[in-house]
Design brief:
Length: about 100
Amino acid sequence: MASESDDNSFIRIIRIKSANGSEKTLEIPAKLDLERPKRPRTVFTDDQLEKLEKAFTDSGYLSGATRAKLAESLGLSDNQVKVWFQNRRTKQKKIESK
């Protein structure tokens, strides 16, 4: 796999060669920064999960103020609570579709 930056540096060009010799060119916005390390996965405590699940059972959606209050009480960021609820709603839809 070869990699090079375009002259205007807004696009990163990656060329991938397959085993059969064919070549694909991918143009990726440079802002994506594929080489930066990933953020570590959040591990929730049992107490945090219990309170998040209770809040989800009460309402699958939280207002911004309620979410901020819950996040503060659990020692989590607002974004962590928001993403947890998004993932939990997705899980619920998957369970209901079976």
